[in-house]
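Attaching the record inline, Q. Sequence:
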Amino acid sequence: MSRISPLQKARAAYQPKLPAALAAGARVKVLEGEPTAAVADVEAIRNLFKTTFGSPVLTFEAASCGCGELPAINAGVILSGGQAPGGHNVIAGVFDGLKSLNPANRLFGFLKGPDGLVKGEAVELTADIVDAYRNTGGFDMIGSGRTKLETPEQFECARANCAKLGITALVIIGGDDSNTNACVLAEYFKSNQAGIQVIGCPKTIDGDLKNEWIEASFGFDTACRVYSELIGNLCRDANSAKKYWHFVKLMGRSASHIALECALQTQPNYAVISEEVAARKMTLGAIVDEIAQVVAARAAAGKNFGIVLIPEGLIEFIPEIKVLIAELNELLAVNAAQIEALDVEGKTAFAAANLSSASAAVFSSLPVGIQNQLCRDRDPHGNVQVSLIETEKMLAAMVGERLAAWKAAGRYKGKFATQTHFFGYEGRCAAPSNYDADYCYSLGYTAAALIGAGRTGYMASVRNTIEPAAQWIAGGIPITMMMNMERRHGADKPVIRKALVELDGAPFRFFDTQRAGWAIETDYVYPGPIQYFGPSEVCDLTTMTLKLEKQGRL
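Structure, as predicted:
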């Protein structure tokens, strides 16, 4: 980097805060809890992870003795999956934590994600390299990728490439699928006595990798603040021009955490929560009706403008379309060889001819463009690429059609003009907020402590983050305790279960009490840009989701 901005220069001097247990270094006292199980399919997970299943939850305390240095080791680190703000600080935390265990420890970064591990492409991360990326966004220090680690051949390549560099510990920084990779790799190494520890770190802006012990996945805080700033700007524009309805799709392929958090921060007129759609068994037509009713009610009050938030993964939660997608996934997986040479239109035609009658009817009712988007190639994990499905445009058009029908019937007299947006990549590589800068650094330092404690198959855990950092609780949880079996590529696979929005949880319940008022009133909030410098009440914020989950109030 030949030139850096004034903000980046100032942020480089920021020293992230650590939990008290790690303040003196990554050599800690380890407290073990009870043996753990899995969230579901316990026997299947136990049989697949015979050597790592059942490990206890770990909590760290500051070491009370003047422990000597541990033997020097070489460790590796991998950034896996999509970018999330704070990834560089995780690496910085791993680096500093390892050096606190023994200054002779070395850290290697595998390039372009898991693919670099399989191909043996790595670079040693020196202090000069790490220092240049502290408190910055992006994953450009070593790059990332979505290669799925699942075959014995890949595992053996990983083992051999680690052996070439003398690596005896790996840190995999990623989301649920990437940490599933970490869990599978840890089991393979341990069962084959490879002598390589594997530690995971919870990353995803989607916020769907969390539980009692992982209260947030890193990057969620920063991404939501970036999106909320943009939504706040649109709110201001809508209230100024008074002639547009903005339909905003937000990242979150399997859960609506981002949409819910941004709604709490900005107070839009309508926000779709996918989990509620599934629970209420809402059809696509019912969703369109609800949005149209809000538009009509505001028009009756002379307000022909508004904001609608839509989660990226909505289409998979609409009951009839969820069934359709499940059939499509199976159909495309089972017939992969037959349809490999087909273009998107050919795959669409193949699907229409081979679906069940009920799903074929749903499929044919969708716009041709949406049909094509549903038949695109799956991602490496077998998932529909929902970010390519233009749900925001579909809903805007369908609401317009519904309102036109109501106008013809004398039920609606307003004006309806739309603007559509998809906020996704805008939030993935932002400079991390103070919360994410501290949290990510603590996660990396915790991963180093887990390595120092000789553990494998664990995910770094930092809890109690609603309090000042000195009161945060560091430790680790076995990745197997988060796993269940799911259908992927036409077969049952062990995966970490995604954490969806809980409709009986405090964040959604608070949203539910407020949304009727937000629908009719113009009660927008304008969060503004992330603040890095200034009073703590402005700079050291936590998400509203976390506040409500931990305190039950805002």
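The radius of gyration is 24 Å. The CA atoms of residues 393 and 532 lie 35 Å apart.

More tomorrow.
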